[in-house]
Amino acid sequence: MKLERLTVRYEGLTVMQDLTLELPDRGMVCLFAPSGSGKTTLLRVVGGLLRPDSGRVIGLEGKKPAFVFQEDRLVPGLSAEQNVALVLDREHQPLAGEFLRKLGLSGWEDAFPAELSGGMKRRVAIARALAYGQQCKEVVYLLDEPLKGLDEQAAATALELIRRQTADAPGFFITHDYEEAQAAAEWIVCLEGRPMQVMQIVRPSR
Known about the structure:
The protein has helices at 39-46, 80-85, 94-102, 118-135, 152-165, 178-184, and strands at residues 2-10, 13-22, 27-32, 54-58, 64-68, 139-144, 170-174, 187-192, 197-202. A hairpin with a 2-residue loop joins β1 (2-10) and β2. The protein is α/β, with parallel strands linked by helices. α3 (94-102) packs across α4 (118-135) and α4 runs parallel beside α5. It is built from six helices and nine strands. Strands 5-6-7-3-8-9 form a six-stranded mixed sheet, sandwiched between helices.
């Protein structure tokens, strides 16, 4: 997997200029950088939601993006289970309830987003991405601060599930917490900007 000479300009600002980064084809990569450095922009480029001004992403052709966005992006009129099932085909519908239960939401499957706490809604968003990823034969996980708003126990449960489900696929994980990065990722890419540049790549010890 390679990000080759990516350049992105937005409203007159150069977010990244000729950014090049080569990474293994499997394993979670943490993008670790101060706020405003362009991490979310880079994630959107990798996921195909934003076209760079120049450069390209190599090695993810044919892979489906499984997103956890910074916002939960739940449909208000659908239950927790329906929100997860929305991204699944008929054969994989049972994954919706399965992942909600794995994330500690047993008994809340029929609750609507307005009835859920912020941390519960976050777990629904995580369940949706992981269930979709399991459905896909080829997937890349794009997780933008997925543990934001979770208490310590819920975050630990979610992180363990994320690690298990994403072990054999490429993925990107954004966080501002270095200990979280060490626990979540196989590689930590330390970035600074703007424009964004790679300062170092760290392989956490397990």
